[in-house]
Structures are given as C-alpha cells and as structure tokens.
Amino acid sequence: MENADLYRENIIEHYKRPRNFEKLEDFSTEAEEHNPLCGDRIKVWIKVEGKKIAKIGWQAQACAICTASASMLSERVKGESLQNAKKADKRLVLSLIGIDPGPARLGCALLPLKAFKLALYKYLAEK
Amino acid sequence: MIDVEKVRQDFPILKRKVNGKKIAYLDNAATTQKPLAVINAIAEYYKSSNANVHRSAHFLSQEATELYENARKKVAKFINADASEIIFVRNTTEALNAVATMACSLAAKEKRGILLSKMEHHSNIVPWQAKAKELGIEIDYAEISLSDWQIDYEDAQEKMGKQPFIFSFIHASNVLGSANDAKRLCKIAKKGGAYSCVDAAQSVPHLKVDVKEIGCDFLAFSGHKICGPMGIGVLYIRKELHECLPPFLFGGNMIKSVTLQKTEFAESTKKFEAGTQNVAGAIGLAAAIDYVQKIGMKNIQRHAQKLADFFAEEIGRISRAEVYGPSRKEIGLVSFNLKKIHAHDVAEFANQEAICIRAGHHCAQPLLQLLGTAASCRASFYLYNTQNEAERLVDAAKKCLARLG
After folding, report:
1. Residue B363 catalytic?
2. What is the CATH number of domain B39-293?
3. What's the predicted TM-score (pTM) here?
4. Cross-chain residue pair A39–B403, CB shorter than 8 Å
5. What CATH architecture does domain B297-404 belong to?
6. Which chain B residues have any C-beta within 8 angstroms of a chain A C-beta?
7. Is the ipTM of this complex over 0.90?
8. Which DSSP letter does residue A21 get?
C-alpha cells in the first residue's frame, strides 16, 4: 500500500509511448525472459557495432511497470559501450524508474534488465 | 439469506483498515478469512488439550485423540463419507501428490496411461507428469467445451478408449468459475475401468459435495478455502481401496510392528497418516465446518453467486472488459481482463483502494493459454462480501482504465 505513486507521470508516459519498442530484424544477440508469477514476457534484441550497442529493440506483453522499465533501460543503454552496458544493475533500473516498486512488483521492474543482460552475456560468451 | 453485517462481525480481519479504507477481501478462491470460532478453537486446543495423538496413555493424549477423531467424523459427515475414509493431509496439492504416488504404484506394471483435463490447476498436472515420466507412461487431456465451460464429456468418454488407469479432474474451475458434473465424469471413468480422482478444492467451499453421490475413488480439498486454517487438507479414499493401496508416507504411527528387517503397516486409515499430525488444524477445520453449516451452505452458495453475477454484469458494462467463463457464476468467481491492460496493473489499482484480488495465471497456465491470455484478474466472493465491495472493484477498474487506457 506504500506504492500509492507507483503510476507516476514518467511511468505512464513511457508505458503509453514505449521507446525502442520494435523487433530488430538485423541483430547480434537476443534473449527472452518471463515472470512465471504474473505472466510478464519480454524479448530483447541488440545490434552491436564497434563494441557499442548500436541498436536495441524489445517487445513485451507486460504490465505498466515492466513496460516503462524496459523503455527507460533501452533508452539508457543505447549507444553505450559494451563495457559500460555490462554494469547496468538493479540500482540503475530503480533510479531510472524513480519509484520503489515494493516487493510484489520488483520482479516486474527488473524483468527487462534480466533479459537485456542475458542477451548481452550471450553475445560476450560467443566472442 | 445471510445477514452479512452480522457475519462480518465474526471475522476480526475485516475490521482492519488500510490508509483509512476498509479491506475488501475478494481473493477467496486463493484462501478465505477465518472466523473467531475457528481461531478460538485452535487457541483453545493449544491452551488446554495439546498432546500427541494415538500414542500415550495419559489423559491429555486421550483428550487430543478424541478431538482429532471427532474432527475426522465431522469432515466425513460433511462429504457423506465414512470416518475411516478421511485422511488428513496438508492441502489439496499434497492429497493429489499422494493419489499420484499410490495409484501409480498400482498401475506401474500395466503401463496404462493417465487422463486429466485441460482445465486443471497445476497441482493436478505436475504430480502426474512427474510420475508419468518415471514410469514411461502417457498423459492425455480431455478438452473443455467452450459452450458451457465444462470438461467436454464426449471427449472424456472418447479418451477413455486408450484405457488410462485413472481419470483425475477438477470439480470446479479456479479460473473459469464453472463446475463440472463430477458424477458423470466418475461414471465415465468407472465404465472405462479407471479410478476416478476429484480435485474439489474450489467446489467444497460452495457446492454440496457428496462422495457417495459422486461415486469417486479419491477426492481432495483444503481446509483453508472453507474458513479453516492453513496446513490442513483432506484426502478421501474409498474404503474398498484401502487394502490394495500402499502407504505414501512412511514413519511413526502408521505401523503395526517394526523389526530391523521389515515393517507391518497399520490397517486402513492409520496406514496413510505417518508422523505427528496437524491436530490443531483438524480441530480448526471441524470448527470451520460447524461455522459454515450454521450459516448454511446453500445460503453461502447463493450469496457468493449473487455477488459474482452482479460483479460480472457490472464489469461487463465496461466496453474494454472481457469476462471469462459461464454466465452463471456458480462458485462465486469471476475472471476478467481489461483489453490491452495487464492484469497486474488492474490488481494494483484495486490494491490502492484496499481491495484484494488475484492477478496472474492462477496456477493454470495451459487453461489461460486456451483463453488466449497470459494472465487474468480474478475476483472471488464468499459469505462475508458485500455488493458495495463489488462496486468498489468496478470503480477501481474504471480508474485504472482512465489512467492507463
């Protein structure tokens, strides 16, 4: 019940107009994650060029918190070096969304990060 | 008729307010709240009669044993069984696991398969999958008829053609709110030479469940969904099967004699209850049965259905709402979605108004897949709910639409 402002303007804005919400046809790595608790599902595609994240796309069937988190994270890591992108963590996501989602919704907020990192590490492992 | 305001006085938790708002508890299909009569019965047992049952000669043990066995008799009468046919377990899941273990050990040699339905809760799928893998046998699933949201009886009949050794099915759906004709399904199983097992977790709190009338071999339900405590469940096993079934748990209390080489098991009911039992839980369940019977099972069913029917109609007026299942909400349960809005978001808006509903896949992923959604919202009503609570949920849904839609 502390989450009275879970749906703040920035969350709603990203939820209604999610950035990078697209499937990349030309990508270097991809990953899918889902939250068995609520059925959120997200897929992420990354195009790497010159050790940088040149493009990132994602698609999800998810709640507002998860959707906004994916949108903000994708904006943040686009153009970053792989070295920097690797450092993306829970703290970064929470500062991006700017709310405390509480224990029940933390999984929603972090699902995009999980998928993003999985895709990234899959790429790094192959190299 | 239920005097709801009077009933609500019996449930201390309903007096709670969150952020100044009265709790509207509409998640009864997950678990129900407990009346004082149940809470007190448990406390009273621990305060004055606690001892281990069936073991010691002292008066406390005798008293505890009597209370425990009386609870068994009460449960037996409630579903028209014989007391010896009632096995206390933790919950429906444990009961279904036990059936899977016992029945599969009987059928291991014949390599006959298992029949379930596409309506099942995970607890009536996963234990069977584990056993099927172990034994290398097949699982078949009876279809759901989309016209009445019941298991397709013709399809079940047809799938009996493969001669499964057991047909295990859900009595009332925790997602759709529909009830299957358990008697008819058991008849289909029996005619095909299979055992029948009924998951009655959602039906026992609402419908008259009579094991003799249904004609099942096994039936399972949980105490906590009918105002009883958590951690106590019931497995009914038809008497005639007791001798041929092996125990599913081994240890103290279930033996006749033990040597270092071998064990002779106790007879009948005792063979199926190993170790120290949840005596307080059984006593709490007996108190819960007393309580709901005092209110009247038929009254409870009518009340919950009236509220669910009302809610389904009101939420259905929202053009973007999609309501699943049959139009008659027999077990007081409504599953719905607001198109293009995730169930979790609707539940969160409800939560902010101190309304408790469930959002997710309700441990029935295959069924939700059939409905073409990954998640749904579920409002489930019981004896202490009011029309005002249903209206509050409709308002919360509208608020969610206004903000996220």
Report:
1. yes
2. 3.40.640.10
3. 0.93
4. no
5. Alpha-Beta Complex (3.90)
6. 18-19, 342-345, 348, 351-352, 354, 359-361, 368, 374-375, 403-404
7. no
8. -
